[in-house]
From TrEMBL:
InterPro entries: TatA/B/E. Keywords: Membrane, Protein transport, Translocation, Transmembrane, Transmembrane helix, Transport. This is Sec-independent protein translocase TatB. Its main location: membrane. It comes from Microbacterium sorbitolivorans. It is a single-pass membrane protein. GO terms for cellular component: membrane. The lineage of its organism: Bacteria, Bacillati, Actinomycetota, Actinomycetes, Micrococcales. One of its GO terms (biological process) is protein transport. It is found in: Membrane.
C-alpha cells in the first residue's frame, strides 16, 4: 500500500496527539485486540482453504490462475486464426452444402419494414 516506516511513525504520532495521553492505553489495547483477531481470522481462512484444496495448496501457481492475465480479444483472435480444422458431423460432411439465396429488400414509405412494438 506504499507505507514506509516514516509514514507509519508519522501516523502513530498524529494519532497519539489526537487521542491524548488519557485514552492512549485503551486505544493501544483496542488496536492490539483488533490486530490479533484479524490475524486469527486470516489464519482460519487459510486453514479452511488448505483443507478444501488439499495437500497441493502450497504447490498452486496463483499467478497462472489470475483472471487479469486473460485478454478476451487475444483469446478470440487465437481461436479465429487457429489452423486446426473443426470436425464436422458425418451427415453434414456427406451432404453437399447449399446456401440460401440472398435477397435484398428495399423499403419505401409505402412498404415499411416489419416492426414489433412489443419488443421495444
Amino acid at each position: 500500500m506504499g507505507f514506509s516506516i516514516e509514514k507509519v511513525i508519522m501516523i502513530a504520532v498524529i494519532a497519539a496527539i489526537l487521542i491524548g495521553p488519557e485514552r492512549l492505553p485503551q486505544a493501544a489495547e483496542w488496536l492490539g485486540r483488533t490486530a490479533r483477531k484479524a490475524r486469527e481470522y486470516i489464519q482460519g481462512a487459510r486453514n479452511r482453504v488448505e483443507q478444501e484444496v488439499g495437500e497441493d495448496f502450497g504447490e498452486v501457481d496463483w499467478k497462472k490462475l489470475d483472471p487479469r492475465q486473460y485478454d478476451p480479444r487475444r483469446i478470440i483472435r487465437e481461436a479465429l486464426l487457429d489452423d486446426a480444422p473443426v470436425a464436422a458431423p458425418a451427415a453434414a460432411a456427406a451432404a453437399p452444402r447449399q446456401s440460401a439465396p440472398i435477397v435484398a429488400h428495399t423499403f419505401s414509405s409505402d412498404n415499411l419494414p416489419p416492426f414489433d412494438d412489443e419488443a421495444t
